[in-house]
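Recall that a protein's primary structure is simply its ordered list of amino acids. Everything else, from secondary elements to tertiary packing, is in principle encoded there. The following example makes that idea concrete.
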Amino acid sequence: MACEGCANAVKRVLSQLGNDVSSVHTDVTKNIVTVTSTLPERTILETLQKTSKPVKAIH
Protein backbone atom coordinates (compact mmCIF):
# COMPACT_ATOMS: atom_id res chain seq x y z
CA MET A 1 0.00 0.00 0.00
CA ALA A 2 1.54 3.21 -1.13
CA CYS A 3 -1.21 5.61 -0.10
CA GLU A 4 -4.61 6.03 1.51
CA GLY A 5 -6.18 5.29 -1.88
CA CYS A 6 -4.62 1.83 -1.77
CA ALA A 7 -5.79 1.37 1.81
CA ASN A 8 -9.31 2.32 0.76
CA ALA A 9 -9.15 -0.20 -2.10
CA VAL A 10 -8.24 -2.91 0.41
CA LYS A 11 -11.12 -1.93 2.69
CA ARG A 12 -13.50 -1.82 -0.27
CA VAL A 13 -12.60 -5.32 -1.48
CA LEU A 14 -12.87 -6.74 2.04
CA SER A 15 -16.27 -5.11 2.51
CA GLN A 16 -17.55 -7.49 -0.19
CA LEU A 17 -17.21 -10.27 2.39
CA GLY A 18 -20.00 -8.71 4.44
CA ASN A 19 -20.54 -9.25 8.15
CA ASP A 20 -17.97 -12.05 8.30
CA VAL A 21 -15.31 -9.32 8.52
CA SER A 22 -15.70 -7.48 11.82
CA SER A 23 -12.77 -5.07 11.49
CA VAL A 24 -10.10 -3.89 9.06
CA HIS A 25 -7.17 -1.73 10.15
CA THR A 26 -4.67 -0.43 7.60
CA ASP A 27 -1.21 0.97 8.34
CA VAL A 28 0.09 2.61 5.17
CA THR A 29 3.51 3.40 6.65
CA LYS A 30 4.14 -0.27 7.53
CA ASN A 31 2.18 -1.75 4.60
CA ILE A 32 0.12 -3.89 6.97
CA VAL A 33 -3.57 -4.72 6.98
CA THR A 34 -5.05 -6.30 10.10
CA VAL A 35 -8.30 -8.17 9.54
CA THR A 36 -10.59 -9.63 12.19
CA SER A 37 -12.93 -12.18 10.66
CA THR A 38 -14.69 -15.49 11.15
CA LEU A 39 -13.65 -16.51 7.63
CA PRO A 40 -10.74 -18.83 6.87
CA GLU A 41 -7.39 -17.13 6.31
CA ARG A 42 -7.32 -18.43 2.75
CA THR A 43 -10.56 -16.60 1.91
CA ILE A 44 -9.16 -13.32 3.23
CA LEU A 45 -5.90 -13.76 1.28
CA GLU A 46 -7.70 -14.65 -1.95
CA THR A 47 -9.94 -11.62 -1.57
CA LEU A 48 -6.97 -9.32 -0.92
CA GLN A 49 -5.22 -10.66 -4.03
CA LYS A 50 -7.97 -8.99 -6.08
CA THR A 51 -6.26 -5.66 -5.32
CA SER A 52 -3.19 -6.79 -7.33
CA LYS A 53 -1.00 -5.98 -4.32
CA PRO A 54 1.47 -8.46 -2.80
CA VAL A 55 -0.28 -10.42 -0.04
CA LYS A 56 1.01 -12.68 2.73
CA ALA A 57 -0.23 -13.73 6.13
CA ILE A 58 1.65 -12.57 9.21
CA HIS A 59 0.87 -14.40 12.44
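DSSP finds two helices and two strands in the chain. The chain has one domain: 4-51.
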